[in-house]
């Protein structure tokens, strides 16, 4: 592309004008490269547009999407873009520039180029990336401590309501308002929080879009990047993990019972699982132990980045509501930046434990319905045992509809409906 073409792209970026549903975002004041990390279609580009919309002088904006098919993906292009920008706005050499690079992983030697830019220009730099080339381990290696990662997820339930034009009401426990939220949480659990899916009205189209997202993510961020030979197997593995959401998953057992029969090596299983994690589609939650080694050797529990993926590739919402509720709780907890575990010591189990620096902060059980005596006793017993073992005075039991506060043995268990808990800060 010649200089006139690059200048046209720069101008197009400054003229971006899209309908925005603002999402909460806290920026930083220190000079770091803001690296917006998240699964494809989670709204990373729109976060950039949201930040750009606040900048009054549009000439201070340099926005380039490196997935634009008009660009040649070479390292030399980087310097040409900067030359073109300052040729257009020479007066801005003494002003702060706001630089937004979308899908930066498509540019050769992106890390070195960004570090040089951050060191030499008076600029706030924001970059996005979808593939594992821009996941945490590679950011810290490539950018050598010069980055500030911003983890961006599909919509939370509060953001989902905002996209629907529905505000959070303080009197949600009363009357018709409660039933409105229950209906909306059903939709959220069923179709998830990818922004485009939330805005789509057709249920059939929602499912088609989710399927397309997964195909693109697996192909572009895994098969294409790692030159995967067994594309059939990585797709089968993903479906297996989607169906195992919130259940125990052992890579050794999977290898012995499934992969071995398909003539897939043990190392390949481990690699493929890690590729799915790095793509942002999947998380594996370990069993809590003060011994890291013990925590790592126990089976883990898979959870998906979006609820609509589970109901599309796992079980229908009506048949898997317990598990999709558990996944919804996990997706809220990962936004807290705490460490997340489950706990099973063979005597009792707790769905989620959150901790910082080996200090246990909270315990959570998730159960659709606790009206059955046996279910109620099992969930309460697990929490009581956990509070005693980890020296806590309160815990949470998240249900579909029940609400009460239990005081047992000088300890409190807060029973709360999922929709209400999801709206809490």
Characterization of the model:
- The chain is of the alpha/beta class.
- It has two domains: 3-152, P-loop containing nucleotide triphosphate hydrolases (Rossmann fold, 3-Layer(aba) Sandwich), CATH 3.40.50; 159-423, no CATH class.
- The protein is 45% helix and 18% strand.
- The protein is built from 17 helices and 13 strands.
- The strands form three sheets. It has a six-stranded mixed beta sheet with strand order 8-9-10-11-13-12. Strands 2-3-4-1-5 form a five-stranded parallel beta sheet, sandwiched between helices.
- Helix 1 crosses helix 3 (76-88).
- The longest helix has 24 residues, at 203-226.
- It is globular.
- The protein starts with a helix and ends with a helix.
- The model has no long low-confidence stretch (mean pLDDT 91).
Q: How many helices?
A: 17
Uncertain parts: none
- What percent of residues are in strands? 15-25%
Strand order across the biggest sheet? 8-9-10-11-13-12
Q: Biggest β-sheet: count, sense, barrel?
A: 6 strands, mixed
Radius of gyration: 23 Å
CA-based shape? globular
Query: In terms of structural class, how would the helical and strand content be classed?
Result: alpha/beta
Tell me the distance between the termini: 48 Å
Q: How many structural domains?
A: 2
Q: Order of helices and strands, N to C? A: HEHEHEHEHEHHHHHHHEHEHHEEEHEEEH
**Share of residues in helices:** 40-55%
What is the residue-mean pLDDT, rounded to a whole number? 91
Number of strands: 13
């Amino acid at each position: 592309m010649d200089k006139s073409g690059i200048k046209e792209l720069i101008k197009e970026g400054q003229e971006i004008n899209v309908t925005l549903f603002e999402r909460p975002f806290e920026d930083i004041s220190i000079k770091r490269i803001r690296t917006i990390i998240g699964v494809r279609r989670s709204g990373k580009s729109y976060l950039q547009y949201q930040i750009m919309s606040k900048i009054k002088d549009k000439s201070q904006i340099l926005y380039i999407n490196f997935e634009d098919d008009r660009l040649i993906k070479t390292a030399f292009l980087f310097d040409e873009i900067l030359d073109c920008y300052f040729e257009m706005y020479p007066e801005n050499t003494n002003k702060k520039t706001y630089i937004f690079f979308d899908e930066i992983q498509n540019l050769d030697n992106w890390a070195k180029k960004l570090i040089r830019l951050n060191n030499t220009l008076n600029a706030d730099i924001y970059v996005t990336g979808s593939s594992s080339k821009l996941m945490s381990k590679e950011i810290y290696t490539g950018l050598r401590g010069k980055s500030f990662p911003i983890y961006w997820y599909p919509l939370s339930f509060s953001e989902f309501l905002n996209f629907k034009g529905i505000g959070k009401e303080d009197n949600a426990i009363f009357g018709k308002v409660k039933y409105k939220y229950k209906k909306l949480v059903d939709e959220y659990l069923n179709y998830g929080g990818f922004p485009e899916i939330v805005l789509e009205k057709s249920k059939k189209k929602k499912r088609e879009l989710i399927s397309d997202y997964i195909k693109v993510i697996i192909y572009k961020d895994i098969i294409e990047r790692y030159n995967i030979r067994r594309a059939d197997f990585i797709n089968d593995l993903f479906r297996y993990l989607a169906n195992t959401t919130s259940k125990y998953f052992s890579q050794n057992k999977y290898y012995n019972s499934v992969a071995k029969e398909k003539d897939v090596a043990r190392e390949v299983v481990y690699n493929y699982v890690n590729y799915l994690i790095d793509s942002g589609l999947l998380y594996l939650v370990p069993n809590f132990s003060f011994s890291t080694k013990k925590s790592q050797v126990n089976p883990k529990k898979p959870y998906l980045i979006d609820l609509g993926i589970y109901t599309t590739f796992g079980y229908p919402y009506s048949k898997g509501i317990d598990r999709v509720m558990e996944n919804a709780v996990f997706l809220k907890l990962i936004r807290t930046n705490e460490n997340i575990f489950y706990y099973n010591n063979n005597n009792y189990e707790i769905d989620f434990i959150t901790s910082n620096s080996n200090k246990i902060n909270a315990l959570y059980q998730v159960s659709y319905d606790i009206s059955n005596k046996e279910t109620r006793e099992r969930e309460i017993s697990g929490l009581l045992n956990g509070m005693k073992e980890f020296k806590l005075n309160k815990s949470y039991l998240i249900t579909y509809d029940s609400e009460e506060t239990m005081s047992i043995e000088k300890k409190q268990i807060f029973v709360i409906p999922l929709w209400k808990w999801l709206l809490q800060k």
